[in-house]
């Protein structure tokens, strides 16, 4: 089966001046040779520290920006001309992090949701209005909300509106750039549940960008870990979390504080800061912070290579890393689990 | 005896805003103790009053807000009754605060060294410039900033987010405070940098014996750092316990909802529990228990009176007439 989305060697370099007076040009290697595929109905999560190129990758996939290099194939067809681009614009939609910034404050919610249908010439005013009602229902809002303005909604509700708008033209792939990062945890859980339900119903594929690895573990089928514009590890969620084969993935996982005081003191921190994407280190880009770095890491850039079925790592020593157990925990405490079960049961009873 | 007394005791604190729809209580009758040398974690969702609570302790509530009631006792002395001058000496002296976004609290046009020495000068007018410089470099060293001598002359924009937060901590700790209030100190940082900062706070606490109030919405950070925890909802503390007890035996339905809402790295769940609805705005609080419209255990009585924060186990308080919920569930069955 061919992938729904396939990107190959994708790059985006931004020219920048070094300083105010310095005319010499440098380039920010925001995305620097990224390849991945997403199957129908699949969620690929993109994770990594701030500035590693996640949003730039998202914008490239949406073709909101032109790639410096690389190809994008959607449903088997390379996106090169205007016709493919038009199709891509309908079949791939986006949900952004900031529900406040992504909605036009002067448009009523109904108009905002109908807008993509208008742009793509789908239906007439009447059928679009019906569809808006249906979409509002899908995301857990009421028909009368169509008449309201964005400022009348809470953050979580606005994110639901953003999702309704993205779904209006029946996309096959939805790019979610930190869709829940700005939301409170209780609301985040509602939106995460909603995204999962919608995926089940419509067979959607997601490119899901997040920096919270617990959210990623919950949402993703496969995960790609980015560092300084490149993918350093990718694999099915389960194997990647249980046995990460890149020291950077391990560092990310080991840095997460678990909601469990019994594990206290087991958080490990990675030293140093992320180097500048204008001047990435030679050899392996991670070697300046890597506890396992050897001479070869300073000289040769390790290619991303398969190290287990479906799992690839860009580390010279992927096979030699010690055992890893930072993601292992005891789970929720027994008494707490009992009460959570009662909570869930009571909630289900009330929902009828 | 004295050592068992908390360093800080907050009693009946109420902080209000006057608005077009009447008086809004951002903090509504909060009692808390901060033990010596330990960390009190305050957790809750956006708008529940965490920042207003800490700003009230510092007497930095922005107008038109004001502390309307209560006492804030630092070693028995009520900070709310100090003169403005005396309070200035407490701020940055015995009590210091750091915020989420170091960039907005650092002055972009002064070097970090100048800002640290400035903070020190405010509390020690007799020290010479050279002395202050040495002490500032010492302060940068304490927060593990590499080559502090050369960093002294850097401007905030030349530093990474993590480094800026270290500088903020260096400034806050310049006068060896007894209490550090950290309001979401790592929320804007990457997890790897967050881990560095949390480590640093813990090391500094071990070194100096200071108490910390750590405000966060992240239950992971709470579990990692806090000795005692207060869970806030809509301006009130709804549950208080040690961290170990809170996670082992959460009692308030809101705490349960929070725990059920977060995905875990060590457990698979098909669906997250989530809490229905949203936090009510402070000008439209429900009658009775403020959580009742979202609470799956709510009964008629919950809509009538506000539950008091009462012991449910040894050293464990919850403001819920349905706690422990297994007994209420049995009654329902
Ligand atoms: N228009 C631009 N011009 C120059 N540099 C840019 C531009 N857009 C992004 N960058 C740089 O490219 C790099 C990648 O940015 P990007 O926004 O993709 O990161 P990200 O992984 O989404 O980060 P975050 O987690 O903070 O959202 C960063 O160093 C950023 O400063
Ligand atoms: N200037 C103001 N006028 C009226 N109400 C205000 C004002 N500033 C804050 N509030 C209210 O006080 C309440 C508590 O705010 P606070 O900033 O303490 O919340 P918080 O728990 O720190 O939230 P967050 O997690 O978002 O930082 C909020 O409901 C807010 O609406
Ligand atoms: Mg981004
Ligand atoms: Mg706050």
UniProtKB/TrEMBL annotation, chain A:
It holds the Pfam family oligo_HPY. PROSITE patterns: ABC_TRANSPORTER_1, ABC_TRANSPORTER_2. Gene3D superfamilies: P-loop containing nucleotide triphosphate hydrolases. Keywords: ATP-binding, Nucleotide-binding, Transport. GO terms for cellular component: plasma membrane. One of its GO terms (molecular function) is ATP hydrolysis activity. One of its GO terms (biological process) is peptide transport. Residues 5-253 form the ABC transporter domain. This is Peptide ABC transporter substrate-binding protein. It comes from Falsiroseomonas bella.
TrEMBL record, chain B:
It is found in: Cell inner membrane. GO terms for molecular function: ATP binding; ATP hydrolysis activity. Residues 8-259 form the ABC transporter domain. Transmembrane segments: none annotated. Keywords: ATP-binding, Cell membrane, Membrane, Nucleotide-binding, Transport. One of its GO terms (biological process) is transmembrane transport. Pfam families: ABC_tran, oligo_HPY. Gene3D superfamilies: P-loop containing nucleotide triphosphate hydrolases. It is a peripheral membrane protein. GO terms for cellular component: plasma membrane. NCBIfam families: oligo_HPY. Belongs to the ABC transporter superfamily. This is Dipeptide ABC transporter ATP-binding protein DppD. It comes from Falsiroseomonas bella. The gene is dppD.
């Amino acid at each position: 089966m061919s992938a729904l989305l396939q990107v190959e060697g994708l790059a985006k370099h931004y020219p920048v001046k070094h300083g105010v007076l310095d005319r010499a040009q440098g380039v920010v290697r925001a995305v620097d040779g990224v390849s991945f595929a997403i199957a129908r109905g699949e969620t690929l999560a993109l994770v990594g520290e701030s500035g590693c190129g996640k949003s730039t990758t998202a914008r490239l996939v949406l073709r909101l920006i032109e790639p410096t290099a690389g190809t994008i194939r959607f449903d088997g067809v390379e996106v090169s001309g205007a016709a493919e681009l038009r199709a891509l614009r309908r079949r791939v939609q986006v949900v952004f992090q900031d529900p406040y910034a992504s909605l036009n404050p002067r448009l009523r919610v109904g108009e905002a949701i109908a807008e993509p249908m208008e742009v793509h010439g789908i239906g007439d005013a009447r059928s679009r209005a019906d569809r808006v009602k249906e979409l509002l229902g899908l995301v857990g809002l009421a028909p009368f909300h169509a008449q309201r303005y964005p400022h009348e909604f809470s953050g979580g509700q606005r994110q639901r509106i953003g999702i309704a708008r993205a779904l209006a033209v029946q996309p096959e792939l939805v790019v979610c750039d930190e869709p829940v990062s700005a939301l409170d945890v209780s609301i985040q859980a509602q939106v995460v549940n909603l995204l999962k339900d919608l995926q089940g119903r419509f067979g959607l594929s997601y490119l899901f960008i997040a920096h919270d690895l617990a959210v990623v573990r919950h949402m993703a089928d496969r995960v790609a870990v980015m560092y300084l514009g490149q993918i350093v590890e990718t694999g099915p969620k389960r194997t990647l979390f249980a046995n990460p084969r890149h020291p950077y993935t391990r560092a990310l996982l080991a840095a997460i504080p678990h909601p469990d005081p019994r594990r206290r003191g087991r958080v490990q921190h990675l030293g140093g800061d992320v180097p500048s994407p204008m001047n990435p280190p030679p050899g392996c880009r991670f070697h300046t912070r890597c506890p396992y770095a050897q001479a070869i890491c300073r000289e040769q850039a390790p290619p991303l290579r398969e190290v287990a079925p479906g799992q690839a790592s860009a580390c010279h020593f992927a096979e030699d890393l010690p055992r890893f157990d930072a993601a292992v925990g005891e789970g929720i405490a027994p008494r707490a689990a009992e009460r959570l079960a009662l909570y869930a049961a009571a909630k289900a009873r009330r929902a009828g | 005896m004295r050592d068992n007394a908390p360093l800080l005791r907050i009693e009946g604190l109420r902080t209000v805003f006057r608005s077009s729809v009447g008086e809004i209580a951002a903090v509504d009758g909060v009692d808390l103790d901060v033990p010596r040398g330990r960390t009190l974690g305050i957790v809750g969702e956006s708008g529940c009053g965490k920042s207003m609570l800490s700003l009230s302790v510092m007497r930095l509530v922005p107008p038109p807000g004001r502390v309307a009631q209560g006492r804030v006792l630092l070693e028995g002395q009520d900070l709310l009754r100090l003169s403005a001058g005396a309070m200035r000496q407490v701020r940055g002296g015995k009590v210091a605060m750091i915020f989420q976004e170091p960039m907005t609290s650092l002055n972009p046009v002064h070097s970090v060294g100048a800002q640290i020495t400035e903070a020190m000068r405010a509390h020690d007018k007799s020290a010479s410039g050279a002395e202050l410089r040495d002490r500032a470099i010492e302060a940068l060293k304490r927060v593990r900033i590499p080559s502090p001598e050369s960093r002294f002359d850097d401007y905030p924009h030349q530093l990474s987010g993590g480094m800026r937060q270290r500088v903020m901590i260096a400034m806050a700790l310049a006068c060896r405070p007894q209490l550090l209030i950290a309001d979401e100190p790592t929320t804007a940082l990457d997890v790897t940098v967050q881990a560095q900062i949390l480590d640093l706070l813990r090391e500094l606490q071990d070194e100096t014996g200071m108490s910390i109030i750590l405000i966060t919405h992240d239950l992971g950070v709470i579990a990692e750092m806090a000795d005692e925890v207060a869970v806030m909802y809509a301006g009130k503390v709804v549950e208080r316990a040690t961290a170990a007890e809170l996670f082992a035996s959460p009692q308030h339905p809101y705490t349960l909802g929070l725990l059920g809402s977060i995905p875990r790295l060590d457990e698979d769940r098909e669906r997250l529990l989530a809490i229905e609805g949203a936090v009510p705005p402070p000008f439209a609080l429900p009658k009775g228990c403020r959580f009742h419209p979202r609470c799956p255990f709510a009964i008629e009585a919950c809509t009538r009176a506000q539950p008091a924060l009462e012991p449910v186990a040894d050293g464990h308080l919850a403001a819920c007439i349905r706690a422990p919920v297994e007994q209420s569930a049995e009654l329902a069955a």
